[in-house]
Amino acid sequence: MLTLPSDFLQKSPEEIAEIVKKVGTPKTVLIVPDNIRRTGIIYKGLDPTKESFERQVFEALNKPYIRLLENIFKHGIRTIFVPSLIHGNLNRYTRYVKEHLRLATYWIFRSEEWLSFYNRLGIRVKVYGDLEYFGRVARSLGFDDALEWCKQVEDDTARNNNHLLFWGVACSGSIETQRLVKLGIDFYRRYGREPTHKELILLYFREDVEPIDIFIRPGEIRDSDCQPPLIGGNAEMYFPVVPLTELPEDFFKQILYDYLYCRLRTFGRKQYSEITREELEIVKRHYEDNRDIIIGLGERYGNFWIPKLTRRRVVA
């Protein structure tokens, strides 16, 4: 286990970035941009029945999402995945999908504000997922040039090398696994052999990317098919109670503290011989004091599910 700096939570993002660089992990973070409509209703006071609702939500959250991504990158993260439009999103009611394409999707691919952000931080942007299916949906709603947006943002940021940002469209993991099989078959027909894992990653993402280290999803304690194929499965998962744009500025510092110093990423090789009798008693007391607690239980208020929380603390 790493030696814990006593002042870790007081360190600047730049100082923490140096620690992350020295340790060599985490490198890759996935954030689920969930609770967007909920944020508009609760925090912005918007009316979801109005035709202007989606437009107002996306306008209100545009800058906060740039700040969110910058906050994560400046703590030493190399790559961020954002599954912006999984297949379920593309099958939502027409007004939502149209406004997402017209505003959010167009902005993050073509607006000067986002392009300036990418170039200022040296972010190379890639779009992953079933672009053919995404293009069909976009054309059916009148956005004939949506695929061109994807190509243009990749071209505009191709020379940036500080960070990678993957925006997902039609990117549900299980559905994309089926398409990945076809890519593997095509590879075999062309080269007469099965592709390696690394070759499949390069085929699918068009970049040599590291596995997902940290998965962050607000409000819901589930994956929802948001992890991409090939690089998911071993992520440490974090579920903030509030929407991502409403988190305190130090939220990612807290996650890194837990990731680096509290969780043991041994992947089945954990040894228990080093734990002291006193520590065993603390763990046992924690189990006994919280035996009725199940992480993941919640309550429903209207259409909102919120997690039940406990304030119980481990006492030595």
Textual characterization of the structure:
α3 packs across α5. The chain contains twelve helices and eight strands. It folds into two domains: 24-264, Decaprenyl diphosphate synthase-like (Undecaprenyl pyrophosphate synthetase), CATH 3.40.1180; 273-316, no CATH class. The protein has helices spanning 13-23, 36-42, 53-73, 87-90, 94-110, 112-121, 131-140, 146-156, 173-191, 197-205, 251-261, 277-289; strands at residues 28-31, 79-85, 123-128, 163-169, 214-216, 236-238, 298-301, 304-307. The mean pLDDT is 92. It has 316 residues and is of the alpha/beta class. The protein starts with 12 loop residues before the first helix and ends in a 9-residue tail after the last strand. A hairpin with a 2-residue loop joins β7 (298-301) and β8. A six-stranded parallel beta sheet has the order 3-4-2-1-5-6.
